[in-house]
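Field: sequence (string)
Field: structure_tokens (string)

Example rows 1 and 2, in order.
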Amino acid sequence: MIVTVDANWLVSRLDDPNIVIIDGRGIMPYRFGHIKNAVPLGVDHVISIADNGANLAIDAQIAEKIFTKLDINDSKEVIAYGEYPDPSVARIIWTLMYHGHPNVKLLDIGYSQWQKAGLPITKQIQKTVQQPKEAIANFVAKTNHAIRADAQMIKVKQNDPNVVIVDARTPQEHIQARIPGSILHNWEEGLGDFGKMLEDQDKLQSKFENKGITKDKEVICYCHSGMRASHTYLQLKYAGFDNVRMYDGSIIDWARHGYPLR
């Protein structure tokens, strides 16, 4: 699956009206400088805090409101970028995928690398163009339940030999408390060098396979609150895995359901 675009590709398309560029770093970094024509969208806008404190996916109605305001619809290609090595932009991308956007990708370098390369940046705030209501092509959510997991699903599948549950956290966190049977893959292993947001595809695939995370299995990834797991989700798709889910509630949700930890 094509998950990323490179800087040269994006530079040549910065003024393309059919591309929406999302700055996923948050409003304050955006104000200090951003890629030309980018619009800000902080990760806090694409999570819903559950009663138990878990960071869950926003519902379809909220997604439609947020993404329509950014002029995103099925006719637009969306390119999102963040800051290396922050994984939160991956949660924004996963949310768009979850709500059915067919064409969203990650810029393969972080903003600092873009800036160091002398590529176009600005401090000008990109404003949403007010159009007549009949002229607006709305974002219509088509929720893709096949890429999301919840606690009940994992409870059922955790002993299934055809399912691999991947812990995207650090070794220390994994040792301290984890979903029983999960395999550790620290999400940082999937970062590339020199500000690259993803490791080389072949290297990524080898890293997964060496841990028993193989393409013939259904893979479910989790972390603490669904940020790092979203990045791992993109890593898996980039490495050619088809059957992948992300547990957005992650270990916060799992523990507060009272399910066992190891």
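Row 2 begins here:
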Amino acid sequence: MQKLQFPALSGSKSGSTRRRILQAGLTGFSALSMADVFRLQAAVTPSKTAPRTAIIMVWLRGGASQLETFDPKPEAPSEFRGPYSAIDTNVPGIRISELLPNLAKIADRYALLRSIAHTGGGHPGGSLQVLAGDPDPQDKLMPVLPDWMSVANYVRRDAARSLPNYVAINPVDRYDNFTIAGSTYLGPSFEPFAVVGDPSNPSFEVPNVGLASDQRERLGRRMQLKSGFDVLRRDLDTSGTLSAVDRFETQAMNLLTSPQAGQAFDLKLEPASVRERYGMNAWGQQLLMARRLVEAGVEIIATEFDGPLCGRVQNWDDHSVNQHVFDAYKFRTPVFDQAVSALIEDIYARGLDQRVLVVVTGEFGRTPRISYVPSSGGGVASGPAGTVQPGRDHWPRVNSMLFAGGGIRTGQVIGATDSKAEDPVERRVGTGDFLATIYKHLGIDYEHIAIQNFAGRPVPILNSGAPIHELQRVSS
């Protein structure tokens, strides 16, 4: 297996000696320990401190239907509109699907973008366009550009933190055998701290975070013994490299032993009423953990909504061969509606709405015209194999996104689609515009930062796009 290469910002002057030492002996990502991750972060020059804003992204793997969520078309012909009606929200003129009654009550707390479009018609291609700005419409087994989460983690790195800066709760990383997100040439040290499993399970816990006091004491004794040997190594080190490495090993220890880290991930510290308000299920508790983490100082959080709560195929890919699209929405939207509305309400109630931006999206929308083919198998929201049932297919020509918090003007709809939700007819937005909006909120200079790729060539973090001006901050 080849050794990994870890670049620095274009034009940086990181010490090549230290970088070679840190790379020596690493044979692959599987060999990295938590301490190794922090050591590798030492190999790049710290960036200028950015404003400490944060983002929570809720990723709907498979692509949600705009018609069954945020852009219903109740007046469209029957072969397009589906069985569900549109309902009024608490903002005059804004209507969303009747399947989202809780979100309808708080439309003044979010903005809807109904006119984002791109050319990636497959799950990998669509995901890479939305998450990384890759303009190529083709599916790829692996991304060639780092996703925005890893870029933000790279630019906003802070070696003094006891908590990770990027946490993925049910990570956004794969679609079947395709990798749809990753750090690519940034190196694995900028991958997320991953939380896996169902946080609503009574036995759930995040390993290697916040050890009990007796465990911390035993670990401390071991580290004291180790430090005695390290003194000899430092005495022999004339470059200062080993002392720097030791600081990052200490940082890994901080995460392992920090009471703050342990508390941030511990949902049992929340009142039962709060946990129930989010929903005692995987999606609700994922978002509750996200809120706890941004309060504790984590700045980049991505969480994926998939699994059994979606229906038989465990994602939002509602082809009729997979599941009955309308039964699937009736099954999953109560959980989605409760969890997302609780997060938005909490962000505002706890005074996080100026700092934290919530984004809800998937890789694309769904075909407005309903298709009918036989099911490939029975299960939740799907008839027995051979049952002809309705579905909606991939549709990158239009998608809907939700934005809340972040100091933006809420209670608005940006863009519009035609009478069948097939194409934007007003304020078409591209994925570069979406990513520019994300970077601007995080205080990242997306117009000037370039990062060296594996070939040593500086690659801009964004090739095109401008922030969506309707989502610019209006208060501070």
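free_text_note (row 2): Confidence is low (pLDDT under 50) at residues 1-32, 37-47, 229-234, 237-248.
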